[in-house]
Structures
1.
Amino acid sequence: MPTARSPDRREAHDLVTASVNRHRAEIVGRVLRSLRRAGSRLARDPATKDQLRAQVTRVLDDTVAMLRSGPHADTAQRPDPASIEIGRQRARHGIHPTEAVQAETALFETALTAIAPDLRQAPEPVDSLARFCLALQRSLARRADLVSRSYFTHLLDQIYHSHAQHRLRLSRELHDRVAHTAAVALRDLELYEAYRVADHERAQARLSAAKAHLQETIDTIRTLSSQLRSTATSEGLQPALVRYLSTAAPTVATSVTVTGIESDLPLTVGDELFLVLREALSNALRHADPGTVAVAVRVRNGKVDATVTDDGRGFDADAALAAPSGTGLPSMVERTYAAGGSLQLRSGAGRGTTVTVTIPLPRRPE
Ligand SMILES: Nc1ncnc2c1ncn2[C@@H]1O[C@H](COP(=O)(O)OP(=O)(O)OP(=O)(O)O)[C@@H](O)[C@H]1O
Ligand SMILES: [Mg+2]
């Protein structure tokens, strides 16, 4: 094999550089077309397409630099804010890492197919091709490493944020509902004591009120505790949803259907989906004043689709997502994205609301 500084190696490097420069635009175009054909989200909207074009160009530049200076080439060592931003945005928009692997494969195959014929003229064609493959692979791996680290860091942040919001909401419920009704019951008992001797009738009324407020406190604690306990994994999605609706909506007409093989749902996906659906149901019951609320979950063709539909008053969903007033909608979106899925809200004044969640399921080992 020629040595690092040999003229043969320099000639091979010049050949690769010229070839990459000549085929650059064609490689970018082919990668985009092949991803578009495969239905990749990376090749769908203008912003991700621009990012992909720039990333392909950077990988090709790194490859050339590594061929010149080895794996520790300057460009390959520099901080890379672009890759970090790409990872963050993909996590934010729910673009699954498998799409990145698909893009890396498309780039590797396309670049190799375009450059390999030119390397036939190199002094050591097989050696030059091997070097080119190695440099391309290293360059792809480096960018992929940065993108995926930033992707998962962002997801972990989202999950942490979502759990923090969940804790906040529980603390708010404890403060606003449990502590509040318990304090009212205490005040009733104090008044009972005050009236006990002089005004028997008023004292009795206070005692009854205290009992009612204590009963309300107990019911609230039971509901909260059942919400904390109930997960889809512990009892299955259908029973968990039915149980939630039986305590939260005893007077509204509700239906829950789960079709497909529920055991195909990984435990974590089932749990996250349950929390998203429960929030959608809670919103329908609290805000929509509905006559009916329906949940439908379908597990099939490697994904789970779920809808929560109410026929209530509806709302401006785009405005609510753009400027959140509560924590429920943002946490539904975050949980769905963190599971690699997508969420759609269709609503409008007087038209009811439909929340649709789709999450692709990981392939089972053959
Ligand atoms: N199904 C629905 N029907 C009508 N309005 C809805 C529905 N879902 C959400 N909304 C509106 O969107 C707003 C935001 O919902 P979000 O779940 O984020 O907050 P919240 O329910 O008010 O409070 P929390 O933080 O306890 O969930 C609600 O206050 C309500 O006005
Ligand atoms: Mg809510």
2.
Amino acid sequence: MLKKILLKGAREGLGRIIVLLDLVTRPKKIQRSVEEQSKVDDETQRLSLYQFYACPFCVKTRRAVHRLNIPLAFRDAQKEPHREQLKSEAGKVKVPCLRIEEEGAVRWMYESNEIIRYLDQRFSP
Ligand SMILES: N[C@@H](CCC(=O)N[C@@H](CS)C(=O)NCC(=O)O)C(=O)O
């Protein structure tokens, strides 16, 4: 029990250090014309990222979102109703997880590398 609590604390602490490092080493944002950015902003409305603030895989994914300059909605999956939504609609509480709405259907994508690849394919110039 104590070991579990200590491990959780160490993980949280490490996560917060990673968040801090991310803040001071943010990648540069991609620049677009007003028209292009408006199109990208519109497309991004149909996406949302379920994530934890101090999860290193989420930090990595948020860095890509920052670099791609997309206004992606972040949902804190440590809080309700997002946690329950993730569990019941996507299948499990694992983050990051990207919710994608397309042609009236919703699909969920786990795995930070896969999410970053998807966002890069869609939004890199
Ligand atoms: N291979 C995954 C790892 C994701 C992962 O392990 N996420 C942890 C948080 S850092 C998680 O969701 N754990 C479930 C939980 O804490 O309930 C990725 O790259 O996205």
